[in-house]
Structure formats: C-alpha cells, structure tokens
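#structure-requests
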Amino acid sequence: MHIIEDRAAWEETYRTVWLDHFQKTGETDWKIYPRPTNHQPISGPAIDLSQSRLMLITSAGSYLKDQQDPFDAANPLGDYTLRLYPAQTDFAALAYAHEHYDHAAVNADPQVLVPLRHLEQLVQAGVIGKLAPMVVSFSGYLPDAARVEDELLPAILAQAQAQGAQGPCWCLPDRSVRSPWGCLLAVWKSTGSLPRSPAGTPGGRAFRCRHAPLSPG
C-alpha cells in the first residue's frame, strides 16, 4: 500500500502549480492546491481497544509553553516537527501554535483537541486498555504531503514503536491538514493494527475525537 498514491504525479503538480504560484506571488491559493487522493481502501487486522495501548496524536499545535519552543505556525509552507509531552500534563501548561483553525473552542475546553482526561476516564472504565505515556503533537497545516510521508509520519511511527502503542487516537481539525491522513493507518500496520471497538466490530478508522470549529478556508 502506498502512503500517497501516484506520488510522483502529485509532487509534479504541487511544485509546478501551487508551490510555483506561492513562490511568484506569496499567495497560498487553495483553489489550485492538488489534494492527495488515495483510492485503495485501508486494511489490516483489528485490535481490541480494551486490551490495547493507544497513543494520543493531535494536530492542534499544542506544546508545553514554558518548556518547549512553539511550532512555526506562521510559516506558509508548514512546520513538520513534533512536540512530545506527558499524557498527565495539566492543560494550564499547554499553548497552541496553529494559525489555521479557530482557537476559541480549544481555549475554552482543551479536551476538544487534547482529550487527555476523557481518555483517562475511558481507561478507568475499561474501554481502552492503556494510554501511551507521551502525547505526540504537531501543527496540522502541512501543504507538502511528500514531507508528511518522508519526515512527519516516520517520526510519529518511531514514537509509536518506542512507546509500545498498538493503535492511534488522533484529534485533527480536519480541514487544516492538507495531507492524506488515512496514510497514518497504513503505516500503523508495522507497529500494530486497526482498532476494534469494545463490542468487537472492526473499526474503519482509528479512535477519533471531536474537533474544534474551523476558520473559513
């Protein structure tokens, strides 16, 4: 399974159309952006959430405001780095570096994009087996899907392997992520497999969380 189907064609269009326009005008014109589209269904064995360790992945741009540098949220070409922080982190210790969604909801209730206390309750209730010790955070404005595949996804996968995670729980303000996020499930097969609901029904996606309202465009 390819992370980006027909990647060479996508890269050619991205660089000669969208990136070329940006370099000439300084404008990020999403009307001409070639969104990656995969056609092959994601597949793989399921897991039982109640017996599994999940790792929280959020694209909210969250980071420890007194200990870590913020993401380069103003970069029109994106920031493809990660920030890690303990799953027990108090929300007061977090800030959010991401300019492509409305922060009103996450500022009012961080659990819309970093649902750590909700996940702890699910562990206590036996719905989820365990949580990985560290949260993986990135700032989800990522126009270059090739860099997502080459840089970001391997870094996330390495964290999953290091933490013994068997499935992802990710929280994405979806329209802010200009990349094929189904690919995260594709690469996850090397560390675990697709989640299974408590009732035993194979899940079509990873365990997902509700997201904050999004800014236009």
